[in-house]
Amino acid sequence: MHIRRHISWWPSVMYWIDAAPLREVAGRNHQGETVRWDELFADMEAQLAQAEQRSVELEAAETARAELSRLTLAERLSAHRNRMVRLLPAHGDVLEGELTDIGAGWAVIRERHFQHLVPLHSVVWWEGLHRKFEIINERAVLRKLGMGHVLRALAASRAHVRVLLVDPSARGDLEGTLDAVGHDFFDLALHPDDQFRRRAAVKAVRTVPFGSVALISSPDTA
Questions:
Q1: Whole-prediction pTM value?
Q2: What is the pLDDT of residues 93-107, one digit of tens each?
Q3: In this structure, are residues 107 and 118 in contact, taking their beta carbons and an 8 Å threshold?
Q4: Beta-ladder partners of 200
C-alpha cells in the first residue's frame, strides 16, 4: 500500500510524490539528465560537513592567532627547554647548543664544554623554535628569576667567566671573576684564565651594566 505525502520546496508550490523510499526516486536536472535524490542529499550532507569543518578550522586558527599575539619570547623558549637551538648574539659567532634554562630576560645554552648565559635582549635571531609555546603563570618562579640571580650564583661559585660585550668596538672580551652583582650591573675582577682571583693577579675591576652584555660564558662542570 502506498501513502501519498507532500513536500513543499517553496510556500507557493506544492508537489505530490509517492512515499516509496527516496533512494528510488529520481528527477531530472536542467540539462535533462536523470538525478537520484539520494545522491543530491548525500552531496548536500557532504557540503554541510565540509562547511562545518572549515568553520572549526577557522575558529582554531583565530584562537591560535589570539594566543600567539599574547605570547612572550620567554614562553616560546620555555617550551623548547632541553632541546637544541641556534642563535646569533649581538656580538660574536652563531651558537648552537642545548637550551637548558630560561628565566626573566635570560637563557642558558650548553655548548660542548661551556655554558653561556644569554640576555634575551642581545639575541639577533633564534633558530629551531617549533610552533609551540608554554603559558607561564604570572606567579611562576621563572618570571621572578632575573639575570642577577644567575650572576650571583656564578659569583658565589668563584667560576672564571668570559664576558662578551654588545658593543663591537670594545677592545676584546673581558675575562675574570665576578666580585659583586647589583640590581642592573656587576663588578668583574679581570685576571688571566689560568690564574685564580688573587690580588696580585687582578689587573683591574670593571663595572659592567647588564644592558652591555651580549654573552657570559663559563666552563661546564657538569
A1: 0.66
A2: 899 999 999 888 999
A3: yes
A4: none
